[in-house]
């Protein structure tokens, strides 16, 4: 047998073994997940959009947003910033409902490269930073004729919210950073978990090779399990399935390039510590003590840098906002908002 044929057969055999190993890896999905997902696939989907929607038009792209509030006057506007590669619908609906019921106008939006916003065709052009994402959010406030807002960001969203507060302090009432960092590549602190990133990549391969609706839902459920870490709470399989399926059937689905594009934006933006020290804005730093992805030391350092900061560490919280914490989180946020009401 010729050498190149032997090499070719060996390569195929190796890739087959690796593929098989990955296929059987990843977290075990909750019991009855298949039945729950099957039920969602056969049922009518709930309506996820309950507010006024629109677009703003930064250079080279478009950005979709939704503004949700009661008909009565509000206690102020809240601008939500979601995590890396996630769109606006990743915010738990129950959490948003609590804030709206409390009298606030809640604004969420799709980052560039996600949901109904513009998708970049590759990883090179055009380049953007977290500051550009913050500018997108500022344009949304302009479009809604809102002068100031409370900022709430999770994970990468906390970084974008920080960038917003730095560049638009007069438009910022308060700043809340949840499971985030002032410099995620800070060499003095343990960085984001490479193991978690690898585990997420593995389930992306496991369920993404054959991207059926069922498999994409399973991928998102598995991601929630990984990001939950050692925290003890049930994953909302039905709610996750409905949200994912709504995105697939009624929106633009999920962009496979979004994670890499957002990660480049994070790396390109560098440290914000020096600028954050100058802020005179009431700040709240929240983190889960069982976060498997971004170590809590990042939030502890962030809190030490911010001059007007308070902290809240949740014992049974991973890198996620589980339904069981919605009430407690809302209480903490409202106390934060009342430090500087509109």
Tell me what you see in this structure.
By secondary structure, the protein is an alpha/beta fold. The protein has a single domain, classed as 3-Layer(aba) Sandwich (Rossmann fold), CATH 3.40.50. The protein contains twelve helices and eight strands. β1 and β2 form a beta hairpin. α2 packs across α7, α4 crosses α5 (156-167) and α7 crosses α8. It is globular. The model is unreliable at 10-23 (pLDDT under 50).
Structure described in brief:
This protein is an alpha/beta fold and 342 residues long.
Indicate the overall shape: globular
What structural category characterises the helix and strand content? alpha/beta
- Biggest pleated-sheet summary: 8 strands, mixed
Helix content: 40-55%
Extract low-pLDDT stretches: 10-23
Total domains? 1
Work out the number of β strands.
Answer: 8
What does the secondary structure layout of this molecule look like, with pairings?
Layout: H1 3-23, H2 33-42, E1 52-56, E2 63-68, E3 77-81, H3 93-101, E4 105-109, H4 130-143, E5 149-154, H5 156-167, E6 172-178, H6 194-208, H7 213-228, H8 237-250, H9 258-269, H10 273-276, E7 283-288, H11 296-305, E8 309-314, H12 326-337
Parallel strand pairs: 3-4, 3-5, 5-6, 6-7, 7-8
Antiparallel strand pairs: 1-2, 2-4
Helix pairs in contact: 2-7, 2-8, 3-12, 4-5, 6-7, 7-8
List keywords for this structure.
single chain; globular; 12 helices; 342 residues; Rossmann fold; eight-stranded mixed sheet; 8 strands; 13% strand; alpha/beta
